[in-house]
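This section describes the prediction task in plain terms. A model, or a person checking by hand, is given the sequence of a single protein chain and must write out its three-dimensional structure as a string of tokens. No templates, partner chains or ligands are provided. The sample shown here is typical of the held-out split.
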Amino acid sequence: MPRIPRSHWQERRPLLLASLVALGVALAIRWDGLADEGSFEASLTVALGERVDVAPGSLVRFGEGGALRFEPVLFRGTVEDGAPADLFYVEARAEEGTVLATRHLSNLTRTSSADELAPLRIGDHHVAFATKVSGRYDAVTLLDLRGEPDAVTRGWPARARVQNAITNLQETGRRVGFGRRRYALRPASESLELTIDSGRVVVTLDDARLVLDPERLAPIEGAERVEAHELEKGMPGTITWVVDSVRNLSFVGPEPIAWLESRVFAIKDYFDRAYYAAAGGPDTEAEVAAEMGVTASGPSSARPTRSSVGRPPPSSQSSTRPRAAKASGSRSSTTPS
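The expected answer:
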């Protein structure tokens, strides 16, 4: 195959650059999710209507959106009629109340029995929302849109950090994820009200008052009423992480992975049985005995013989009966006459 000279590519460099720019513009201004209902909330509700039901009045917007720029949006929504609500995240591109495109729709809570209330914006980077379980308020959670703190992945190798970024993108729609602090109420409260005062969250309960600072974990007021938890993660593995990541893909899902796992384990079991049938299986009794630190057969004295089973023990009277004293040429005086 003849080699293409470098001058050939140099002459066509402007054309290649123009093509890349055109592709980038086309990807940026694609018009998927177009909805025009007069307002941003109504348009977003229609744009997401086939995937999630947006609760009215629950939208919290961050940043300045536009025709060419996506803005983060958090809202309360449900995926099934009558089901408890979850907290969702989506990025939307809008212009004057018209939603042009959406991306990265993600369920941030995924709770089956807890009902998340509408989020409340705190400054430029935080939101707060309450959780209700069985009719009682169970917790208050703060989210940080700047992402997870560095302490979460401190000491991890580069491979694990990349894996964590991919997982965050799948689960939250953002490579950096969310910073998360959860304040569990002990005990749960019948009533709860969230308000913002000078950048702090004020939580009014039945018999207590909490004051939370988004920049610190410990409550400013009411620490005895809650249990504060910072976001923690374990370093991901390799094979299990790959399986979970593929399972989380929207076009794959759990069913194909479950089918593949069943086939793989069936094949492995088939070859294991074929191998042990040909080469012989391990001595299970010996392996268990070795783990317990005893011999497989045990001492011979501890094993009863067939002839001794069911018979009484030998008499010990012969060893304790006094013997008669013998005198030379005569009977003993103890012999009865």
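For orientation: Confidence is low (pLDDT under 50) at residues 26-31, 318-337.
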